[in-house]
Amino acid sequence: MFEFIDVKFRNVLEVPKLFIEKGKITTIVGASGSGKTTFLKLLNKMISPTQGRILFMGTDLSQIDSIAHRRRVSLLSQNPVIFEGNIRDNLTIGLKFQGKPLPSDDLLIDILERVRLQKQLNSSADTLSGGEKQRLALGRVLLLNPDVYLLDEPCSALDEVTEELIIEMMADLVKKNGKTLVLVTHSKAIAKHYSDTIIEVIDGKCSGEVHL
Ligand SMILES: Nc1ncnc2c1ncn2[C@@H]1O[C@H](COP(=O)(O)OP(=O)(O)OP(=O)(O)O)[C@@H](O)[C@H]1O
């Protein structure tokens, strides 16, 4: 689905050759500051290579409209923004930006269940804990229904049990709905258990698949 050819981004990240497969789970591991977030940002065209090329379904990303691309490839950042307002507003804000019709409350409640957030749609979002905010933001991305999910440590504020449930839910989505997941995680256990491919970034260099 993605192919990296001699890619560099400034002196931050170097990816000589790499494939990311459609319909699979690819996990990115590496030390803090090694370049994992930069890798995800290249995939959804938030930044562009300063050298080399990235192909998406065979087309150079430089030839693809950035906004159209981000509708197909959604990035959930490490510290997602939670907007003023209630849970419903926060779930639907992405759809509103995209000019898409708003879903029924039943669908929104189903999304909250999938991200294991036991809150009412009308309750305020700013009093949520860090981990609850993470799950709310994941719910927002699920509603956008992209082809590719780029999740940057989506469970960093969650306990192990909830983390497992959330990753399990995402893995199910990949299997049943043919989605593609690229996941940054610090958990080697999660990486080992769920990944089809594990990629390690070491000091800004990403040389392909590793076996943990
Ligand atoms: N646009 C940029 N220009 C220059 N340097 C950058 C840019 N973006 C990030 N960096 C630097 O590149 C390095 C890698 O950053 P990145 O956020 O990709 O790391 P990371 O592996 O995701 O870290 P963490 O696990 O702590 O989130 C950092 O030292 C960061 O300061």
UniProtKB/TrEMBL annotation:
Source organism phylogeny: Bacteria, Bacillati, Bacillota, Clostridia, Thermoanaerobacterales
Pfam hit, one: ABC_tran
GO MF term set: ATP binding; ATP hydrolysis activity
Swiss-Prot/TrEMBL keywords: ATP-binding, Hydrolase, Nucleotide-binding, Transport
The name this protein goes by in its record: Putative ABC transporter, ATP-binding protein
Lineage: superkingdom: Bacteria
Enzyme kind, highest EC tier: hydrolase
Domain ABC transporter stretches: 2-212
EC number: 3.6.3.-
